[in-house]
Amino acid sequence: MPNFKNNEVQTLSNILLDMYGAAELEELMDLFLSDIRALIPYDQSCFQVLELGQQKPDEVNVKMSVYENVQEKYRRLFEDFGSDQGHLKNLLACKDSIVYLESDLIDKDIRKDIEFYKKYYKPQNLEYAAGIVLIKEGQSLGVISFFRSEQWGDFNEKEVFILDVLKSHIANAVIDHMNMRKSEASLGDQILTSREREITELIVKGCTNEEIAKMLFISVSTTKKHIYNIFYKYGVHNRVALIKKLHAK
């Protein structure tokens, strides 16, 4: 076991506190990528959560992604290639969360011929990658990836150990949030009135309050009251949060 300084132990503790204290899944993902940088420096990172219930490792369906220091064009590229890489797909078939060091999985010379390396690594001068494949009792939950340039060097034994210590905590926190979202969304459906369900569908379609009022032959004031009740029942404060919660079902 590597030696840890007092401040490093405190940082680990703070990471766990932030993670378990996060109100939303996206907040948890963002906090982890930000906090872990104090112990594991990196150039870029990505935290992807997969669709719950996904059973086949060869079908990677990303539900939500949070990036740190990744330009928009490379985010799109990552969505196309990221978790779909062969070595990560193989790891998604594992029964429990696993930490990976890419240099242990792929020969350096072979990797240079891989399309993702040519389009993502090389243009950004990235050379090394490590991360966690999140799995809980055979259920694939997500992938956390960290990238470094040649300047930083490869991820060392201590950094891999830190990820190994945190992996089960992250998996537990992620699945707790996903199950909570699912329960809240189902509860919202059960307690909405028929009118509120109509309005919810129109909100998802992007209709304004005025458009909803016109289509349903009600006043804008009445529309706003219905929307307030919908927000209250789903435990959200705005349209964006409502749509995110509905899409999380």
Automatic annotation (TrEMBL):
GO biological process, one term: regulation of DNA-templated transcription
PROSITE patterns (UniProt xref): HTH_LUXR_2 (PS50043)
Keywords: DNA-binding, Transcription, Transcription regulation
SUPFAM superfamilies: C-terminal effector domain of the bipartite response regulators
Entry-linked InterPro entries: GAF-like_dom_sf, Sig_transdc_resp-reg_C-effctor, Tscrpt_reg_LuxR_C, WH-like_DNA-bd_sf
Keyword Transcription assigned: yes
Every HTH luxR-type domain range: 185-249
Gene Ontology molecular function, alphabetical: DNA binding
PANTHER family the record matches: DNA-BINDING TRANSCRIPTIONAL ACTIVATOR DEVR_DOSR
Protein name from the UniProt record: LuxR C-terminal-related transcriptional regulator
